[in-house]
């Protein structure tokens, strides 16, 4: 389930990344561009965290940020992405506010939490889903999980500092 969601997201993101790679970049290296964002993908107590990775590009006033980190606790897996620019815009375009619908992959709900628009999906059969936090019109935090209950997934997402992420992506 998580793999399909990420592949669908990549279908939108990869063309934007390819276009950005072909465009002349500013003097900053991609590695330097990740420095402000990597510390925002914090260690989670009780979880084994993978190494953060991603890409940050800026050219002619346009910015793309995709920073990802995986976490595991036994058979439970969580993938967290901090997104800005076209990758975030494509994810945010599929979310809404105040809606609650049923889809083949489970219910979709949107609400406001701590002043942020949050869209959630959850499939009870394998305890999988996603949480998408809108950090701005072109910035988002995405948490995909498998093996967590819906409430525990939201609690896990709240362990990340949404306000600090919002500030870093402005």
Task: Please tell me about this protein's structure.
The chain is an alpha+beta fold and 170 residues long. The protein is built from 5 helices and 9 strands; from the N terminus they run ααββββαβββββαα. It has helices spanning 2-22, 30-34, 86-93, 150-158, 162-169; strands spanning 48-49, 53-59, 62-73, 76-84, 100-103, 106-113, 116-123, 128-136, 139-146. Strands 1, 2, 3, 4, 5, 6, 7, 8 and 9 form a 9-stranded antiparallel β-sheet that branches. The chain is globular. Residues 1-31 have low confidence and may be disordered.
The helix content is 25-40%
Which parts are unreliable, with pLDDT below 50 for 5 consecutive residues or more? 1-31
Largest sheet: 9 strands, antiparallel
Distance between the termini: 31 Å
Annotation field: number of helices: 5
Determine Rg (CA atoms, Å). 16 Å
Secondary structure elements and their pairing?
Layout: H1 2-22, H2 30-34, E1 48-49, E2 53-59, E3 62-73, E4 76-84, H3 86-93, E5 100-103, E6 106-113, E7 116-123, E8 128-136, E9 139-146, H4 150-158, H5 162-169
Antiparallel strand pairs: 1-3, 2-3, 3-4, 4-9, 5-6, 6-7, 7-8, 8-9
